[in-house]
Amino acid sequence: MNTISEVSQSTPQPASDKDRILIFDTTLRDGEQSPGASMTLEEKLQVADILDQMGVDIIEAGFPIASDGDFEAVQQIAGRVKRSVICGLSRASAKDIDRAAEALRPAERRRIHTFIATSPLHMKFKLNMTPEQVLQKVTDSVTRARNHTDDVEWSAEDGTRTEHDFLCRCVEAAIKAGAGTINIPDTVGYSVPEEYFALISMLRQRVPGADDVIFSTHCHDDLGMAVANSLAGIRAGARQIECTINGLGERAGNAALEEIVMAIRTRGDVLPFDTGIDTRMLVRASRMVSTVSAFPVQYNKAIVGKNAFAHESGIHQDGMLKNAETYEIMRPEDVGVSQTSLVMGKHSGRHAFREKLVALGYQLGENAFEDAFKRFKDLADRKKHVFDEDIEALVEDEVAAAGERIRMIALTVISGTGGAARATVTLDVDGRHETRESHGDGPVDATFAAIRKIVEHGADLMLYQVSAVTEGTDAQAEVSVRLEENGKTVTGRGADTDTMVASAKAYVSGLNKLMTRRAKTAPEALRAG
Ligand SMILES: CC(=O)SCCNC(=O)CCNC(=O)[C@H](O)C(C)(C)COP(=O)(O)OP(=O)(O)OC[C@H]1O[C@@H](n2cnc3c(N)ncnc32)[C@H](O)[C@@H]1OP(=O)(O)O
Ligand SMILES: CC(C)C(=O)C(=O)O
Ligand SMILES: [Mg+2]
Question: Can you tell me which residues bind Mn(2+) (predicted)?
């Protein structure tokens, strides 16, 4: 029978007096049972490699009897992985067990995992067996598996819905036949933590030989309690947790490896255990499994979700800037996230905005900062994602507009298939608001014509160019115009989520530059109309 130190013998161990919990990953077996999550051989090898590197103690590589493809995957993983124990699943039948043993032959350290359902419902309706027949199968299957390897795990499928007396008899039979690991699955995710704690405690107290084996948890997430139940299991004395990356698995999935490992690491005060997992690889493993299974990770998923270390609210961002522990209980680098991200959005405040400006290389005076902050909030109200480029465009506009004589105040444009476009523009010229309306050949032409009515000039429009600052339909448009007067050209630039507003801003910015140039040569040459 294997002991914890034998199973984890080549896992680098931190010096610790805490109890060691074995991490049994079943992403490649139970995880792959998720409808639509099947992986190619090459993908399985990649996942096995990363599991091995991150310090998983046991990798359940597949169910060899299921198909030739599964057999080959288990066989190749067995021949390749040198550190983790490689495990193959089998029903309580000789042909399954022998097939698993054959697939596992190349492994340096191999485990056969054999299971049979023990609940009244499963025995009667699914297996069509009496309890005594099932009990006999337990002995026969474990005995047969032990002929192939010393490392045998036995599982009581639907264990949490099994009568306690019968479960005790089955576990005792499995131990007597030579199983070193006894797994008690909550196959349908039905249990609650107190109940699961009591179940593992009861088995450890009542079953002869229980002290000589490792009890294991295998919890499904149908009621969202897979991780809580697994943790209750180790508090009751289980020393192996079966789990999957991203919680992949049948129906609502299995207990998520990353959540288990980080809960143990973060709450050592109430969970005095250690795992051998290099937590810095968690996000990498999560991304790989998400890619190969084509199962996206939800943004707010614990530990590995995109938002797990991201903050948008001003009050949280302010707290984070003052002390990260105000709103983060784990360090992002400990799970492989390079840094916390303070996402700029409509809920952000001045502290975070100032920090962002400094990071982007801007030092604004107090008034310019307040103006920029107001424009940022206006933009964030209209735009779902405010990217660094948006803030740069906004500040560049602000900086360019400082000290200028003409400012855009308002614009209304009506255009479409119903005739000529009409624009109404209000500008602030030297502190006075002027409004004019004009028709035009399209909305840009109408807008520029209305501006020309307010600011008379003889410059020709040589270039009009629109580009998107960022991606998406709510991206800011960045418009550039080139105006030419007396052989001299100026360029104007404007950015806004509304292309017409960006166009008007660009035209006004060009006119401001013309005014500056003319003022140097012929003061008062440009006048408001
Ligand atoms: C809770 C779990 O995750 S259990 C693992 C579930 N995973 C899978 O089923 C994935 C792989 N499975 C497969 O590829 C196929 O189901 C196979 C190859 C295992 C079996 O295929 P088939 O022989 O065509 O049988 P099928 O899947 O239709 O039915 C399952 C049979 O296994 C029996 N069975 C189920 N569990 C066990 C067990 N632990 N021990 C012995 N027999 C079992 C069922 O009673 C049924 O037997 P029957 O044919 O006499 O009625
Ligand atoms: C095969 C067993 C361990 C299983 O996956 C379950 O019961 O959920
Ligand atoms: Mg399962």
Answer: 30, 218, 220, 254
